[in-house]
Each structure stands twice: as structure tokens, then as C-alpha cells.
Design a protein that fits this description.
This protein is of the alpha/beta class. Helices cover about 40% and strands about 20% of the residues. The strands form 2 sheets. A 6-stranded parallel β-sheet has the order 1-4-3-2-5-6, sandwiched between helices. Helix 6 crosses helix 7 and helix 9 runs antiparallel to helix 10.
Length: about 290
Amino acid sequence: MSNPPARIETASNAVELRLRVRLWRNKGARVALVPTMGALHEGHLALVRAAKERADRVVVSNFVNPAQFAPHEDFARYPRDLAGDRAKLEAAGGTDLIYAPETKAIYPDGFSTKLTVEGPGVGLESDVRPHFFSGVATVVAKLLIHCAPDFVMFGEKDYQQLLVVKQMVRDLDLPLEVVGVPTVREADGVALSSRNAYLTPEQRKVAGHLNRVLARVAERAKAGVSIPQAEAEGAAALLEAGFDRVDYVALRDAETLALLRNVARPSRVLAAARVGATRLIDNMAV
């Protein structure tokens, strides 16, 4: 009989986490952090595998961050299953510690500091969710301070978030590398997301059109169609496919998310659209 997966220990506060990381560092280990909000899927496990390729020890944080949810958003119903997430990580291997702090360990009474990242954080998601990147930057900064990793891993599915974190790390001179990991997709091309669990079977079929529309927008732009026209065609195609609302379809500079006149330099097409009550985002290189 094969041995059961080794149980992963948990740190519930910064003191416990720092103690464990210090012990690893005393032995010369390099450390990677994989920040998550739980509800783990194969996309998160891909981050763990990429982390293990670079580091000797891997910490996976599991914290649903209230600061990045507006009052009308889905914080209360966001899926939480620490035991299930632990089982997935133990079965997959590669994780050395789970960091699962309580809310007060991150935002104690009297907490009154927020980070604001402009540059790649301006526009797109911040036009629709103006609170979002401040909440992301603040919690990621705290996780990085608590863990002090050599690497922090983020998926390219949340591409604007990835660039925001890179900008924050550069601006604050944090001594670590932000690593972007390619999006993991299901068989029909839908980007893996914890929010996919909200979709009904019919909505799931609609969601399958998102990546195909993005690919078509990229093709049209590379063929010489003007960027505004390619974006407008993409938005119309999503509505025709059954999405209830399109927040944006945008072709942007891949490094800065600045507006483009053409796609002569590395570019990215990004989109956010809602089907029913579920908001989906995706992007791909042009």
C-alpha cells in the first residue's frame, strides 16, 4: 500500500509563519509564497508546481480578503473550504506550509492603512471595481512582509493584478521576484476560476465563448483592424453569445497596460463580462 500524503502544517499568524521561515533560511532554503483565497483548483496547483521549481520551500496562503470586495459583491458567499484545500495540496505535493490567518491577524482593530497603486492599476478593473487594487495591494504587501519570500507566484489569468503586484514590489524595493504563471484552462478553453462554481450548466456554455472571442479580437487586430473596432466587435460578440453585460474588451500594452495605436509591440487583450450573477475575466497575448 502507498503511504498517505504527508499532512501539511498550518501557521495562523505572522509570528508562527516567521518562525518556520527563519528555520528554513537557517538551513539555506529559498522560499516561495503562493497567495490564494482558497477554493483551490488546478490553476492554484500549477502555481505550487511553478513555485517548487524555483524554491526549496513553498508557503500557500489561504485568506479571503475582505478589503477587495465591495459591499454589493460576493464576499459572504465566496467558497471557503480549508479542509478541502488542505487535502488538495497534500495530494498534489510540493507545499510545505499553509498560512491561514484569521481576519484580525491581517486587519487588527484600528488598522487604517491602504496602499494605492497607479500605473497598471488605473482603468479596466479599477473603472468597475475602484476599491479592488487597493485591497489587493494592501493584503499582498502584508503577506510579503509576514513571509519575506524569495518568490511570489501569481497566475496570468488576473493579468492586471499581476502587473499591479509587480509595480508595487518595484516601487517599494521589496527583495523578491514576482513570477507570472500561464493561465490554466479547461478543455473548452475556459480559464479556471473559483467563481466558475457559481455557473449553471447553461451559463457554463456561455462562458466557453469568452476565450474564443478574445482570440478573434487578437486576430483582427493583428490583421490590421483598428483597435477600437476590434474591441467593439469583441464586446458585441460576447453579448451575442449570451453574456448579460460586458464591462470591457481592451487591447493594451502587455507591460504597462497603456493604450495602444496598434499591436506592433507586445500586447494583451483583456475582457470582463457577466453571465447571470457571475463576473468572469480573461486575457491572452496578442
